[in-house]
User: Which sequence fits this backbone?
């Protein structure tokens, strides 16, 4: 996620999703860190995208990963 080489979306699983969730929690999201990109993670990603002025598509690619790595705060829905 940090390098932006992975694209994560709802349904993704594993260590990269756990890292993503950790970044979202650091940004203020109230989600669990379980490695499962479900609805709660999707909502948090969209909140981070809104806060960063990005398209709110729920897909974590280079731009969203960069914003999260820079510490963007997650805005509420």
Assistant:
């Amino acid at each position: 996620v940090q390098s932006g080489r992975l694209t994560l979306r709802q349904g993704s699983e594993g260590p990269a999703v756990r890292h993503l969730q950790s970044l979202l929690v650091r940004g203020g999201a109230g989600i669990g860190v379980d490695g499962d990109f479900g609805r709660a993670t999707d909502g948090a990603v969209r909140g981070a995208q809104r806060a960063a002025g990005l398209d709110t598509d729920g897909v974590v690619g280079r731009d969203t990963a960069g914003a999260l790595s820079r510490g963007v705060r997650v805005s509420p829905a």
Summary: The chain has a mean pLDDT of 93.
